[in-house]
Design goal:
The complex is a heterodimer.
Chain A: E1 5-14, E2 17-27, E3 32-36, H1 43-50, E4 58-63, H2 73-76, E5 79-82, H3 94-102, H4 111-118, H5 133-145, E6 151-155, H6 163-178, E7 182-186, H7 190-196, E8 199-204, E9 207-212, E10 225-231, E11 234-240, H8 243-254, E12 259-264, H9 268-280
Parallel strand pairs in A: 3-7, 3-8, 5-6, 6-7
Antiparallel strand pairs in A: 1-2, 1-4, 8-9, 10-11, 10-12
Helix pairs in contact in A: 3-4, 4-5
Chain B: H1 2-21, H2 23-43, H3 54-84, H4 87-92, H5 98-128, H6 136-160, H7 167-184, H8 196-204, H9 206-218, H10 234-255
Helix pairs in contact in B: 1-5, 2-3, 2-5, 3-5, 3-6, 3-7, 3-9, 6-9, 6-10, 9-10
The chains are: A alpha/beta, B mainly alpha.
Chain lengths: 281, 264
């Protein structure tokens, strides 16, 4: 199966500023990849080059077998883009938006089915200007997937969501993935990348600083685990490389259930901050 | 081919829907000319106007201004707005034929123009006894003038839209420019009563010629003697409007940007 996205030696500068200094990665079809990095790291530039919005100064890029700089209509039919910061379509209704954008694709999804999927059925008759931030973003997602794309770009899709809306959104992405779509996600929420992505690519200062499944990122799996429990009314905390052995020993020594037992690995956010922080020094 | 036309009609529908829902567009492109026509016809009788009522004279000028409002001013404000709020970026990311965006804008300008004409002629006929021309010659002249004006002012509006970053910035330049051209091109005043320098400036721009052509449609033939050069000179009008159409088209094709400056 050919890769959905292939990037090698990608470079882009703005005036004197080298925003992207040679990024390379390959994204397999049907995968969900999170592109992570602080603001100004080169994430948006990279994604918008892949989407065919921005030009590049160097390197090779193929998206669904086509160079995005030469992407034509038949290529765009296979993509779904959920851009950042949308403030358009305000005076149309939600239903009019999905119907109109469906008409731009040769084999779109059913507009009603898409509204169902993003949970906006009751809002079909409402003007976009009356939607809450989360509802608006779900509409953006609806417009991104209405063409039944093979590859979906989600650029910070859940910014401004409440926790409930975020969970609902994650289910939506999981459903897209289950249907076989390839997903490239950028986000500032590490929890989101952890929940959705089978791979995380961290960029900083225009280069890739880490590229691994979220659970393995930055040797996260081999890190010290923190084990906490309560012994004789006192909270105890210990760092260990062998938490299972420690718990077995505690179980043998104290007998029965351990009070307040907790085993904690570094979160993706801990690892991410370390990766991005290392670069700063 | 049919799918291309379908995409044009689809965008046209959306644009017209948006126009009717946006109070500003209706105010500035439809109500404003109507109010100007009503107020000025009731108040003023300019110096040096012979043979016709001011309402009749003004009707020709306001109909000529119709495409300046809807085409030039409307687009030069709406497009930067759509560039900064993400409309253009979103459309660019879809397989929509690029021409559909412009087709939608043009259809919308035509619809606004037709509404302007119906309302202005209706108001003029009812309130000020404005005569509506019915001769085939007048109608044919009206159609080719409108077609050239549509091309000129929509393409100049699209070209102008690339200069401004936001709709507000565009409005701050386009609105006074349109007013200046209207004042000097014979919309409200008689060109022959203007100082020479003002006439010379106005004569460079298309509105003066469009007004002259529209007067040949809406005013009696003998009014021609009141024009600069003693006649309507439709050949000259057609030539200058055609040159401006080409200039407008070249400029709009060369300057149009889908994405905000620095985001490409």
């Amino acid at each position: 199966m050919p890769a959905a996205i292939e990037v090698s030696g990608l470079k882009r500068s703005y005036g004197d500023l080298l925003a992207v200094k040679g990024i390379s990665f390959t994204i397999e079809q049907g995968s969900c990849t999170a592109l992570l990095g602080p603001n100004g790291a080169g994430k948006t530039t990279t994604v918008e080059i892949l989407e065919g919005y921005r030009h590049r100064d160097g390197g090779d890029v193929t998206v669904l077998g086509t160079d995005p700089a030469r992407g034509d209509r038949s290529w765009r039919q296979r993509l779904g883009i959920v851009p950042q910061n949308c403030a358009d379509l305000l005076e149309l209704t939600v239903g009019e938006c999905v119907t109109h954008f469906a008409s731009l694709y040769p084999a779109p999804r059913e507009p009603e089915a898409v509204l169902e999927l993003v949970g906006l059925v009751e809002k079909a008759g409402s003007r976009v200007s009356t939607l809450s931030g989360g509802q608006r973003r779900r509409l953006d997602v609806a417009l991104g997937i209405i063409g039944n794309p093979e590859l979906v770009f989600l650029d910070e899709p859940t910014t401004g969501f409440d926790p409930e809306a975020r969970r609902a959104f994650w289910q939506l992405v999981a459903a897209l993935k289950a249907e076989g779509a390839t997903i490239l996600l950028t986000t500032h929420y590490m929890e989101e990348a952890d929940a959705l992505a089978d791979r995380a690519i961290v960029v900083n200062h225009g280069v890739v600083v880490a590229d691994a499944p979220p659970h393995a990122l930055g040797e996260r799996a081999d890190d010290l685990a923190v084990v906490k429990w309560i012994e004789a009314g006192v909270a105890v905390e210990r760092d260990t490389t062998t938490p299972t052995a420690l718990i077995a020993e505690l179980h043998a020594r104290l007998g029965g259930e351990l009070d307040g037992l907790e085993v904690r690995r570094p979160t993706l956010e801990d690892v991410y901050l370390r990766l991005v922080g290392e670069q700063e020094s | 081919m049919t799918s291309l036309i379908k995409s044009w009609m689809g965008r046209g529908r959306i644009e017209v829907m948006l126009t009717f829902r946006d109070r500003r567009t209706i105010t500035f492109t439809v109500m404003l000319p109507l109010i100007l026509l009503l107020v000025l016809s009731s108040l003023v009788h300019p110096i040096g106007l012979k043979y016709v009522s001011f309402a009749q004279y003004l009707t020709a000028g306001m109909i000529a201004s119709g495409l300046v409002y809807g085409g030039f001013q409307g687009l030069s404000i709406a497009i930067p707005e759509e560039r900064s709020n993400g409309t253009l970026k979103r459309l660019y990311g879809t397989p929509m034929p690029r021409s559909a965006y412009f087709a939608g804008k043009i259809m919308n300008v035509v619809v606004i123009y037709v509404i302007q004409i119906v309302l202005m002629l209706g108001l003029g006929a009812i309130a000020f006894h404005v005569t509506i021309p019915t001769s085939p010659t007048a109608i044919i002249t009206f159609i080719w003038l409108s077609a050239l004006a549509l091309i000129t002012f929509t393409s100049l509006g699209i070209a102008f839209s690339s200069l401004a970053k936001t709709g507000q910035a565009a409005a701050a330049i386009a609105t006074p420019l349109v007013l200046f051209l209207q004042f000097t091109s014979g919309v409200f005043f008689i060109v022959t009563s203007e100082p020479t320098w003002m006439r010379s400036i106005a004569s460079v721009f298309p509105l003066r010629w469009l007004c002259q052509g529209m007067r040949s449609v809406f005013l009696p033939a003998r009014f021609g003697s009141q024009e600069l050069g003693g006649g309507f000179h439709l050949g000259q009008v057609a030539l200058i409007m055609a040159v401006w159409s080409v200039v407008g088209l070249v400029l709009c094709f060369r300057t149009f940007r889908w994405l905000p400056l620095g985001e490409d």
